[in-house]
Each structure stands twice: as structure tokens, then as C-alpha cells.
Amino acid sequence: MSSERQVVTPLLVLVAAIFIAFLIAANLIAVKLVSFFGGLLFLPAAVVIFPVTYIFGDILTEVYGFRRSRMVIWLGFFANLIVVLAIWIAQILPPAAFWHGQQAYVQILGQTPRILAGSFGAYLVGEFLNSIVLSRLKLATKGRFLWTRTVGSTIVGQAADSLIFITVAFVGTIPSGALVQLILDQWLFKVAYEVVATPLTYLVVGFLKRHEQIDTFDRDVSLNPFRVFELQ
User: Fold this and answer.
1) What's the CA gap between 24 and 50, in Å, rounded?
2) b/e for 89-124, b at 16 or more Cβ within 10 A?
3) Rounded to whole angstroms, what are the CA distances from 53 to 97, 102, 108?
4) Using CA atoms, how far apart are residues 197 and 51, in angstroms rounded to an integer?
5) Strand ranges (DSSP E) for the chain?
């Protein structure tokens, strides 16, 4: 297998598309709070699918390397920004006199600036930390023990994601004890999700490496998140 091949393939495009689709879907359904375990745990509905973005982030970095992962992370950011802008534009347009869904539209799709800031900031920091940690661990383990870097990178990335989003979005609006508990609950749930999905991650990574004939190691690669056009 080549460790230097850096081309855009149909499978890379497919993985990137799935990553972005899950990201946007998670942001759209995050407004609903879901009861788990008979009411013992309450979390946004997004926790059901948002961890998938970290799984596919792991797959992107593991197979195609940090440079491709960095490109897809930024693509996801701008795609999500476009969706948010489209929703906002539709919200401020005057509704037809016979349409009575404006209040419901705003309640479900309208997001406060705090929540948007928390969401975008948490996404960028969490995803880049996830990708960087996995990239470094792959070199440290010489490509062995995939589970250590998928789980290890998720522990770091999801911790940052949960901390930033919950703090920015809700600090000052709920008791500090509840805030900390919400951060811990989200973090633990997402990490557990990654652990359970590890066999699936192995299957997808193995499939891509065989069909792409690529296994990228990020030697002498800048981990600067802003060097997005450095693809070679």
C-alpha cells in the first residue's frame, strides 16, 4: 500500500459527503430533547447521529491523512454555515397571510446567536483535535492498534466539543451543577458510542484501505488547521 498517494477518489468524496450529511442533520435535530433509560438521562436528539461525524472523521484521517481530513472538516463547516444562513433568510422573510407556521418554524429551526457560536466553535475545535490526536497516535503506534487512536482521539475531541458547546450555549441559564453534569453526560455518551461502533470502524477502514490501496502516515505534515489548501 502507498502511504503518499494524495488523490481525490470517488470513495473519498462519498465518505466526505456522509460526514457532512450527518453533521448538518445533527444540527437540525439538536433542538429536540430526548429521554433515555426511562427518564434517567436527557440529551439532545443530535447525540444519536452526531458521534458518527467523529467516526467518519477518524476514517478520513486514518485512511487519507490529516490534510484530506482538514479539507473535509472545513467543507463541513461552510456547508453548515450555508444551511444556517438559508434557514435564517427564510425565517425573516414575511410569511404568507394564510400560512400559520411562522412561530413553529422559529421555535424549531431558529437558533440563538449563543447556540450557533457554541455549535460552530465546538465543531471546529473538537473535530480538529480528534483528527490531530489520531494522526499523531498513528505515527506513535506505527499504524497498529487502530482502536487506541479512534477511541483516544474521540475522548479528547468530544471532551472539547461538549465543554465548548454546553458552556457557550447555556452558561448562566442553568445551575452550574447541572451544566457540569450535562457536559459529562454528553461526553460519556459520545465516547461510549465510539467504543460500541469500533467494529464498524474497523470494517470501513479495512474496506477503504484495500480498495484505495492507501494507508496514509502524516510524516512531515503541518497540523495547522488553517493551511487548508496544502493538499500535497
Assistant:
1) 9
2) eeeeeeeeeeeeeeeeeeeeeebeeebbebbbbbbb
3) 40, 31, 22
4) 10
5) 33-36, 41-44
Residue with the larger pLDDT of the pair 147 and 30: 147
pLDDT for 1: 54
- Asked if 208 and 61 touch (Cβ cutoff 8 Å), the reply is no
Closest residue by Cα to residue 131 from 103, 158, 99 = 158
Is the Cβ–Cβ distance between 191 and 155 less than 8 Å? yes
Task: Tell me the three state secondary structure of residue 27.
Answer: helix
Query: Which cell is 3 given?
Result: 502511504
Over residues 82-102, the pLDDT tens digits come to 999 999 999 999 999 999 999
Mean pLDDT along residues 23-43: 82
Which one-letter DSSP state was computed for residue 94?
A: P
Beta strands of 62-130 (E only): which ranges? none
Which residue did the predictor score with more confidence, 205 or 45?
Answer: 205
Cα gap 136→132, rounded to integer Å: 6
Which residue's entry shows cell 479495512?
A: 206
What pLDDT does residue 174 have? 80
CB 191 within 8 A of CB 151: yes
pTM summary value: 0.91
